[in-house]
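[Q] Does anyone have a clean structure-token version of this?
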Amino acid sequence: MALTTGTKLGPYEILSPLGAGGMGEVYRARDIRLNRDVALKVLPEEFAADPLRRRRFEEEANSLAALNHPNILVVFDVGTDGGVFFLISELLEGQTLRECLGERRLPLRSAVYYALEIAQGLATAHEAGFVHRDLKPENVFITRDDRVKILDFGLAKQVTTLQQSRRAAASPDSQTATEFVMCTPGYSAPEHMIGKKVDHRADIFSLGAILYEMLSGRHAFVGEDSVEILNATVKLEPPDLTANVADLPPALHHITRRCLEKKPEQRFQCASDLAFAIEALSGTPSSTYTAKAPRTRRTPARAATLIAAAVVACAGLLFLAILMLKTVPPTFRQLIFGRGYISSARFTPDGQSVVFGGAFFGHPRELFSTRLDGRAWRSLDLPPADILGIARNGEMGIALGRHNFYQWMVVGTLGEVPLSGGAPHRILDDVCDGDISPDGKQFAIVRCGGSEETLEYPIGKPLFRTNGWISNPRISPASDAVAFLEHPLLGDDRGYVSLVDTSGNSRRLTPEWASEGGCAWSASGKEIWFSSSYESERASLRAVTPTGKQRVILATVTDIALQDVSPDGNVLLTTVHGSTEMLVGHKGQSADRVLELPQEHARMAGLSYSGNIVALGFSGPGSGNDYSTLVLPEGATEPVRLGDGDPSSISPDGKWIFSLIPSQLNQFILYPTGTGQPRPVDVSPVHILGVASSWTSDGSRILFTGADANRRPRSYLLEVESGTTRAVTPEDTSDGIISPSGEYIVARDSSRKFMVYSVAGGEPRPVEGLAAGEVPIQWDASGSKLYVWNRTVPANVYLLDVRTGTRTLWLEIKPAEVSGLLYGEVIVTPDGRSYGYRYRRVLTDLFLAEGLR
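[A] Here you go.
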């Protein structure tokens, strides 16, 4: 029903109509009690006629009112008068995003800004249990001061339910048709369009469609009518944005594409993660975000306001300039000069010296010290070790014999030694990382072994367990909590900054980073400082509070890693210069072929039996948050990118690359290396634990390591044709490799010993003759021998008989230059004709940073 000017509904007087839509008519009204103008929306008559539904809507409106987020329309009241059911909200001045868009694309900065504000509003609503279900440009309002307001939250669900009930009563057999109520073709998610259950991830799809339109000026899904648009939404991919938007950053393209994934589980899993991805793209954390999108419209009526704003802005800039004159900018001074890798560094208690662990000119890691006021550095004359922490009393926690055993993962023996000198006290073997308490009386350690890593503080008291891995534990200044970096995928440095208290209560403080390393408490003890990167950016220095508030401290054009923060606020940083060297060889040939790769973060994931096709993974800046899968055929000048994912192996014939999705660890993708379409593989409810996988020689089965709901790792066998998965080794087994025939699996048991398991069943038998630290690379073609090595560079690869333990040297790998060699990978084909290997070289420089805040 239409309302005329002067009509009163309760304490509200109608002033003028504002518009109408699927959710009802909207009027400008006057709240007589509070003497303010509001927006009054008249809702369908059925709401007033159904007391139960009206009560439910009133309860939901009250919950919406409690959200109080700047990007969600504020709801003030709901009521009924004379059979008219209405909702009262804040009165907005501006225009809808649809009116703002028209048929054009928005400036890039405006699109990113609006998308960020929508995502932040969605995040708050979703956390409170609200799903919009009908997000589109018509339901996004841009105020005159360029703030985004999401309209009609909660109404979509209520109106849909109401209309479904009404239609079901009229035609009980027409259930399917009612499922399409409140879908908006081109914006609603595929699962919504076909009547499946909808959750918060449907809103993420809708935001992706809106972002696509803001960036390109075109609809993501088009057709002659609603049916064609529905078909495009469910079955077709939108046109490539990069073809129409020349200046589109790759990371923004990736964000948009991920929002528009057909399957909900392949999208961003929560709006807060999406908002964080957009923040990382813009380089501005939400806790300090104050920049506004560029103005796309101005009116003469606002000229006076703009002039006044300019005067205020000039005054503000003058005040800021005065403050800047009083602020000392940060300074950076290089402390160590030498070609090598500095793995850890800590301030001494007086803050005047630094102890660091470094490997220079190919020597094992050794402990050194240097003073801040000098340039000389000296060895501490201790056995090879790394520094873990230094207590106030001068006691040092060290890791003796520490080395990389699987990509970024390290292991050593926990030791203690005074800073003043003496022989180290060996405390505990198989420690991956650790820290010493401020008073020097306790240790926090990461214990390696078995099916999981455990964070203990003090030793013997488990606080946190994971099937992934843990690094950089740092005890809080009050000794009541431990901050650490949590990595869900073995060997991969992606992950979260997490915190656990001494009662074992843990929480993640940040969304997942593509790479992270380094962690320390701030001088005040109120923040945790860390270094991390996201998608295409370089690793930067950031801070997060125990409540999750984040900010950027330092961002540069090179990767940096945090080492330590002193009580007076000085910071130790290393700059990281990584490079990768890959070679492929054929047994009996004189020289190995060097692979010329432009990416420093590339790795070799697999080699076809012929040795002619190489599967590559790329995880550095520009690769995307889910990395990149590439293929390099012999004779090609550069690799070809096949898509997202971290590749784990290649089929024996070289036709398929098996790749996992790091952000969704129950998802694989089979990429064809030639013509063809990718094949997604969902192994739910299995949770993938490692990158490595292996194939049977006929290409019909793939073995990988995963965990069930009990978090117990074991080997799983995937049937390539059917996509079915089954467990084939006992719980608490890992690092499995299947023989070419598919009869046997070699894997670690719960005691970390390698055993041979029969796929048909029966008791396992130990692998005879394995030396300490050695691991299998591949079975030979006969299924009776293993290629093994000890994961060191330079490397010796042996062929080992699993029954007798006899071994023969099969391959020697000796890089010409050994400085900074951190870890490597070796791949061998079962027939022994071809092999490939990679070195990861990391060179660092140690800097003292003063004045960072």
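[Q] Thanks! Anything notable?
[A] The radius of gyration is 30 Å.
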